Amino acid sequence: MDVLPSEEEQMLKNLAREFLEAECPPSLARAMEKDELGYPPELWKKMAELGWFGLALPEEYGGQGMPLTYLAIIIEEAGRAIAPVPFHSTMAAALTIAEHGTDEQKRELLPAVSRGDLILTWALTETDPRLRPEGVRLEAREDGDDLVLSGIKMFVDSFSVADKCLVVCRTSEKSPENKGLTVVLVDTGSSGISYNPLVTLAKDRQCRVTFDNVRVSRANVLGDINRGWPVAEWMLDRATALLCAQMLGATRKDAEMAIEYSKNRVAFGRPIGAFQSIQHLCADMTLWVDGAQLLTYEALWKLDQGLPATVEVSQAKSFCNEKCEAAVRSSQTIHGGIGFMMEFDLHLWYRRVSAWTMRLGTSFEHRERVAKALLDQPGQVRLGMPLTPVS
Amino acid sequence: MDFGFTPEQEALRQEVVEFIKEKVTPEVLGEVETALETGMGPHHQRLLKEVAAKGWVGISWPKEYGGQGGSRIDQYIVEEEFARAGISVGGAGTGAPAILMAGTEEQKQHFIPGLITGEIIFAQGYTEPQGGADLAGLQCRAVRDGDEFVINGQKMYTSSAHYATHVYLMCRTDPDAPRHKGISILLVPMDAPGITVRALWTIQSDPPAPASTTYGTPRTNEVFFEDVRVPASALLGEENMGWYVGAMGLNLDRVGASRYLISVRRDEDIINWIKENQIDGYSITDAPAIRDRLAELWIEAQVCRLMTMRSMSLVERGGNFTYEGSAEKVWAPEHGVKTTETITQILGPYAQLLNGSEGAIRDGLFAHNVMGAFQSGINHGSVQVMRDQVARRGLGMPRG
Predict the structure, then answer these.
(1) pLDDT, tens digit, for every residue of A271-284?
(2) Which of A160, A190, A13 minimizes the C-alpha distance to A84?
(3) Based on CB atoms within 10 Å of each CB, which residue in B8, B72, B150, B348 is the most buried?
(4) Residue A172, exposed/middle/buried by CB under 10 A (0-12, 13-18, 19+)?
(5) How far is CA B259 from CA A350, B10, B328, in A?
(6) How far apart are the C-alpha atoms of A56 and A17, rounded to whole Å?
(7) Count of CB atoms within 10 A of residue B81's CB?
(8) Residue B142 pairs with which residues in a beta bridge?
């Protein structure tokens, strides 16, 4: 047991930070909010050259086969730099393909992901925002060797720039066993697809996507037909844990900005950082992010070990949602009026962290998952001993 | 990063759990219930000797002083299981870490083996009547007189003074030096002539709390020193460097499994109780607001656990704390209070019933915690002082 980063992990973190500080200033995030494409292809290419996209993908498909925690360290740093790239969505889908895809799918897609030639995303949520199988209504009708998709998806991350999208669809009637869902890989340019970008708090590229009789070959199914929900859950665990890493990276930077500001801003004849009211806010912000970090990496470590980690992921996300939000809010408070000014950079972090708390599960949803594991099964609970997830 | 334990460590935990099942008998727990008031009973003492004989106290301390020269993580595992059973395994707290770092060879040989067997117990002589948070303002004087120090002054809230064998005394040896630079630490035997102990009874003393109450104490003490003479060899570390020795000792004292487990045991207690019990036929676990709050508490308890694991990792690497010990000392006590308050709002009027009352749940444990839980946010440095330390030492924020 050693919960601190190893020498190699720390080196990776430092390299990522140095690179992003040089290549991804806040002005880039600001510019991309108004950019038509919404991400800088040059930065994307450089990140690929550093080997980041293949870091946690299998070696036989052009990756480096490193643990998920390594990828999370990079995503944490990307969060710190609020890097405006479709990194998170691409990784969530690519990891899922690496785990659940056929050999052919992996050969075709994963080396291209590593090279930075393929941007991916995924689509689950429709009108019901909860991450539940019964919310999936988008129908995939079997027709010969094809599936024909009709329906809508909401909040699809980076859809406008993605080449392919993992779509969770309904292939048979709802059932209590969560059967009847299928995950299928769809070309975003397929005939019958249209999309509208949503105007979001983070000014990112989420879309409402309409599927109107979109024809997809059965060869593009990931896993088995009608057995898609476990694939989706597998993806959600990783996507959620990685979003936590991204969120806490951004929050740490946001908190550091407030701490730095308080050491320099003078009021009542002294730096405001000399007042205990400000010191205690800063202490709490730091401890909140520390807690978020420990919970997140414990979940990621368990995923790497192949252990059940759904409860740990939910612990991390609900804690990140509330404490990261509280930390960036404190940071705004410490900055006072300047923090609300468009020309000042702080809001770039505040808006993103806030938006990320709303995605991939609310605090209430995740806590209910923890509560089920904690309260709805027999046997005594013991801190430090794993709880069995209840779906 | 590695959040797991080795198979050997898992086996050690299992062995400790089995040992506790067998050896922590109702007789032992009965004695633990009154130990803070009257000192340890025979069953309690025998148990601690057996624990020491197993090699489970001071696992990470050097072999030449009776330790095992082993891993701090192993020690953490043992501490954690005993703390869960309501037993504090000796030696791990005050005194030993600082003596091992700053003590003379003679002091190490004299004190460490006794701390392991429980034959030596230190009381903490930090706080004085004028305050504890502003420790550097302490006034208890020790004056050098040839080969001796002569001590005069008073300590306050010295909780184990009535059964401790020694006091780990922080006192002023140079009144003309700046506050932090005129302090020394003396290891003073409690039976030295001139020491008087006077009992102070806390709100937890009547009726006595059940043994499973891990918070607080029924009794604490005032200790008076009147021309108390100790040999110069009682000095720990260098003269007038006591502030730094003490700070180091306090830092190490703040980390450890017992500290966090004291504050999170209540989560296990209440969850396990409501899973197995109903009140008048309804199940508490059905209420959505309570479910949400219990999950929230459980998650925060994990943070307490993980912060302790972080400190253990730092100790194991031989690293220095900047704020990590203080971080634990903010989170765990505040969590304990939050859990206690939540429990009162889950059980309603039943949560008022003290030990011995008709209708008391778990011998009034939860009611006693209302009186005890906040104590861990006060002693050994309050949570506010801890936040100051996080801000100043951890974040480099300026003094006011």
Answers:
(1) 999 999 999 999 99
(2) A160
(3) B72
(4) middle
(5) 35, 21, 8
(6) 19
(7) 22
(8) B151
User: How far, CA to CA in Å, does A158 sit from each of A72, A94, A361, B228?
Assistant: 19, 14, 18, 76
Q: How many residues can be counted in chain A?
A: 391
At B306-347, the pLDDT tens digits run 999 999 899 889 877 889 989 999 999 999 999 999 999 999
For residue A307, what are the contacts with CB-CB under 8 A and spacing of at least 6? A386
For A306-328, write each residue's pLDDT tens digit.
Answer: 999 999 999 999 999 999 999 99
Question: Which of A128, A284, A297 shows the shortest CA–CA distance to B395?
Answer: A284
Asked if the C-beta of B281 comes within 8 angstroms of chain A's C-beta atoms, the answer is no
Q: Are B217 and B202 in contact (CB under 8 A)?
A: yes
Name the packing angle between helices A41-49 and A7-23 (round to 10°).
160
Question: Across the A/B interface, how many CB contacts are shorter than 8 Å?
Answer: 168
Q: How many CB atoms lie within 10 A of CB A59?
A: 10
> How confident is the model at residue B94, as a pLDDT?
65
Q: How far apart are CA B1 and CA A13, in angstroms?
A: 13
Beta pairing partners, B225: B153, B195
Whole-angstrom distance, CA of residue B15 vs CA of residue B81? 10
Locate the chain A residue with the closest alpha carbon to B260.
A383
Q: Give the integer Cα–Cα distance in Å for B48 and B64.
A: 20
CA-based R_g, chain B, Å: 21
Q: List own/partner pairs for B313-318 with CB under 8 A and 24 or more apart.
A: B313/A1, B313/A2, B313/A3, B313/A4, B314/A4, B315/B60, B315/B72, B315/B252, B315/B255, B316/A2, B316/B71, B316/B72, B316/B73, B317/A2, B317/A4
Contact A283 B3 (CB under 8 A): no
Say how far apart CA A104 and CA A218 lie, in whole Å. Answer: 13
pTM recorded for the entire structure:
0.95
What is B236-273 written as a DSSP string? ESSTTBHHHHHHHHHHHHH-SHHHHHHHHHHHHHHHHH
Q: Which helix or strand (DSSP H or E) is residue B153 part of?
A: strand B148-156
Look up residue A389 and give its DSSP letter: P
Side-chain half-sphere CA neighbours of B48 within 13 A: 25
- How many whole angstroms separate alpha carbon A283 and alpha carbon B81? 30
Of A6, A286, A374, the CB nearest to B395: A286
Query: At residue B299, does pLDDT exceed 70?
Result: yes
Whether A12 contacts A64, CB under 8 Å: no
Type and span of the H or E element at B125? strand B122-125
Work out the minimum CA distance from B319 to partner chain A, whole angstroms. Answer: 11
Q: Which tokens in the block code for residue B302? A: 């994990």
Q: Do B330 and A287 touch (CB under 8 A)?
A: yes
What are the Cα distances from residue A20, in Å, to A16, A29, A50, A215, A313? Answer: 6, 12, 11, 40, 27
* Alpha-carbon gap, residue B340 to B372, rounded angstroms: 9
> Hey, of B263, B304, B395, B399, which one would you mutate to test binding to chain A, going by the most A CBs within 10 A of its CB?
B395
pLDDT surpassing 60 at residue B92: no
Closest CA to A23 of A53, A1, A2, A44: A44
Amino acid identity of residue B78, one-letter, is V
> Could you give the dihedral angle defined by the CA atoms of residues A124, A127, A388 and B259, in that order, rounded to the nearest 10 degrees?
110
Residues 6 or more apart in contact with residue A144 via CB below 8 angstroms = none
How many Cα atoms within 13 Å fall on the side-chain side of residue B271? 29
Segments of B234-378 assigned E as strands:
235-236
pLDDT reported for residue A61 = 97
- Residue B10 contacts by C-beta under 8 Å, 6 or more apart in sequence? none
pLDDT given at position B132: 76
| H-type alpha helices, chain A | 7-23, 26-34, 41-49, 68-80, 87-100, 103-115, 229-264, 276-304, 310-335, 346-357, 363-375
Burial of B305 (C-beta count, 10 Å sphere; 0-12/13-18/19+): buried
